[in-house]
Design goal:
The protein is of the alpha/beta class. The protein is built from ten helices and 15 strands. Bound molecules: 6-O-phosphono-beta-D-fructofuranose (F6P).
């Protein structure tokens, strides 16, 4: 490992940036990148609030060990983040009108002007797709997969997922007592975008009676059958966990906002189900949307560990001359995979997954039988 010398004019310099929605563990990755690089005698520049930060001198800072002290256990990102910072389609408001401009060439120029040899990009599918586009324009990048949704294909796990599942499970635990006391059906809407990972894991861990996933369209009659069955056995309450992307057979996902240049925002399935299930069964229903609580709080030890392994592996990848790859968790190991391959499609919950089978074995309904 090269030792840093003050007179060395060829100190290796790398950048690190976080993009898209925040995810618990981002700070642990940044810390691992900075400490691993500093221990090699390199310099790390933190780019604030997404790629576009490269265009602003006051948003690129040399990061020291002091900057990353005491952050392994904190949520959020010390670099800030945005899901509006796509340099290929940057939103700007001119004369009260929103326009999209392509500033990617400027970003590439600025990256080289700073003398950076690689950019560690910590993001989900959207941010990593932008990273891949920048890679095609000559910016060597190392991707680090981040998302509470756990929906990235090339990695078995993303950091942030464990924390989101823990928060959702904790909420489900708390709802049991009130549901039982009032003999109600409580419907909990959890995040996950177009996949049901958070719903499946928290639903099973929290002892839910019904789990609804985008991957398994539900029908109301089937859920009603499960509820009636519980009431017949004098278990006069039920917990339904619905992924925000859950949909009925032949139905569509429910969105609450479509904004230009952004991913549509899902939301509203729990409220809709509460109305539909009350109408169908007569049981009293209440709905709850956990929302951004799932992105907050301290990362779990599992997320801190994965995030730290990813950050250190990203620096090792640069040291080994790799570029345009993503670090990934596969078979208990951290490996690198080509970035272009990693972002090709999202990872849905497989229908033959043993976790689904185990839930069914326990009598949990997915609303499809
Ligand atoms: O991808 C992470 C995520 O939290 C999704 O689960 C959710 O659908 C979305 O981001 C919410 O995005 P925003 O923070 O823009 O509301």
């Amino acid at each position: 490992m090269a030792q840093r010398r003050k007179s060395d004019s060829r100190i290796r310099k790398i950048g690190v940036v976080t993009g898209g929605g925040d995810s618990p563990g981002l700070n642990a990755v940044i810390r691992a990148v900075v400490l691993s690089a500093l221990n090699r005698g390199w310099e790390v520049y933190g780019v604030e609030r997404g790629f576009e930060g490269l265009l602003h001198r006051d948003r690129v800072h040399l990061l020291t060990a002091q900057d990353v002290r005491g952050i392994i256990h904190t949520g959020g990102t010390i670099l800030g983040t945005t899901n509006r910072g796509n340099p290929f389609e940057l939103n700007i408001v001119e004369d009260g009108e929103t326009k999209h401009i392509d500033v990617s060439d400027k970003v590439v120029r600025e990256f080289h002007r700073l003398g950076l040899e690689s950019l560690v990009v910590i993001g989900g599918d959207g941010t990593l797709t932008i990273a891949d586009d920048l890679a095609r324009k000559g910016v060597p990048v190392i991707g680090v997969p981040k998302t509470i949704d756990n929906d990235l294909m090339a990695t078995e796990m993303t950091f942030g997922f464990s924390t989101a599942v823990t928060t959702a499970t904790d909420a489900i635990d708390k709802l049991h007592a009130t549901a039982a006391s009032h003999e109600r059906v409580m419907i909990v809407e959890v995040m996950g975008r177009y996949t049901g990972w958070i719903a499946l894991y928290s639903g099973l861990s929290g002892g839910a009676d019904v789990i609804l996933l985008p991957e398994i369209p539900y029908n109301l009659e089937s859920i009603a059958k499960k509820l009636h069955d519980r009431w017949r056995r004098r278990r006069n309450f039920a917990i339904v966990v619905a992924a925000e992307g859950a949909r009925s057979e032949g139905g569509e996902m429910i969105f609450k906002a479509h904004e230009e240049g952004r991913e549509p925002r899902l939301g509203g399935i729990a409220e809709q189900l509460a109305i539909d299930l009350h109408r169908q069964t007569g049981y009293e229903t209440r709905s709850l949307v956990l929302g951004h609580l799932q992105r907050g709080g301290q990362p779990t030890p599992a997320d801190r560990l994965l995030a730290t392994r990813f950050g250190a592996a990203a620096v090792r990848a640069i040291e080994n001359g790799k570029k345009n790859v993503m670090v990934a968790y596969q078979s208990s190991d951290v490996v690198t995979v080509p970035l272009a391959k990693a972002i090709r499609k999202s990872k849905l919950v497989p229908l033959d997954y043993d976790v689904i089978q185990s839930a069914r074995d326990l009598g949990i309904s997915f609303g499809d039988e």
